[in-house]
Design a protein that fits this description.
Endonuclease Iii, domain 2, 13 helices, Endonuclease III, domain 1, DNA-binding
DNA sequence: ACCCAGGGTCATA
DNA sequence: TATGACCATGGG
């Protein structure tokens, strides 16, 4: 119930966030890998480099030499490891037959497949599941843990999977809802919770005092 | 100058 | 299973 209420409070506060920015599912997937521990503004620069080089496709990325790819990815940080991860992902993506073929997999299988790629962990996999494949998978991130432990809805010691189950049980399996909620959590985390460590001064006050 | 961002892997114990 | 080191740019 707290989880549902908090969504309403955040949505009222911030409005729709229009996530995930990206013209195609593949662009969203690339962004998911590049945004690992990285500010989104830096990811946009890297994606723009790929677009400008006409290299925003799995085949092109795979056929590009490491140094060249790393140079395009440079603004997003960790460019050497991300060049490898992006190639790992593209290799898998092509082997699996691309978006249309992957879309035929059920949600559980698709998630397992994503997690088998070196460089794709739970959060990246779930970003791709939700925002590229539009599956009702709730994305957990550091903000989710921080905000909801701060308001006492969870302990904060839960594993990624435990938290995901908590949210998915509290909410209907609704892609549009999960999409908006995760984006709102990130928005709130950035705007308020970092600068104000105590939630009694933020817009979740009503939730905290329940 | 310092902190952290829309994390994940690997080595070590 | 649970820490710690490591990856690296850019904005505040």
């Amino acid at each position: 119930m707290r989880i549902k209420r908090t969504y309403n409070i955040l949505f009222k506060q911030y409005g729709p966030q229009h996530w995930w920015p990206g013209d195609t599912p593949f662009e969203i997937m690339v962004g998911s890998v590049l945004t690992q521990n990285t500010a989104w503004t830096n990811v946009e620069k890297a994606i723009n480099n790929l677009k400008q080089a006409n290299a925003l496709s799995a085949e092109t990325i795979l056929s590009t030499h490491h140094a060249r790819l790393a140079k395009w990815l440079r603004p997003s940080g960790y460019f050497n490891i991300k060049a490898k991860r992006l190639k790992n992902f593209c290799q898998w993506y092509v082997e699996q037959g691309g978006f249309k073929s992957l879309s035929k997999l059920d949600t559980k299988r698709l998630r397992e497949q994503l997690l088998s790629v070196n460089g794709v962990g739970p959060e990246t996999a779930d970003d791709i599941m939700l925002y590229a494949f539009e599956r009702p998978v709730f994305v957990i991130d550091a903000y989710t843990r921080r905000i909801f432990s701060r308001i006492g809805a969870v302990s904060g010691e839960e594993s990624y999977e435990e938290l995901r189950q908590i949210f998915e049980k509290a909410l209907k399996p609704d892609v549009a809802l999960y999409n908006e909620y995760h984006a709102l959590i990130v928005k709130h985390g950035k705007d308020i919770c970092r600068s104000r460590p105590r939630c009694d001064q933020c817009c979740l006050t009503g939730v905290c005092q329940e």
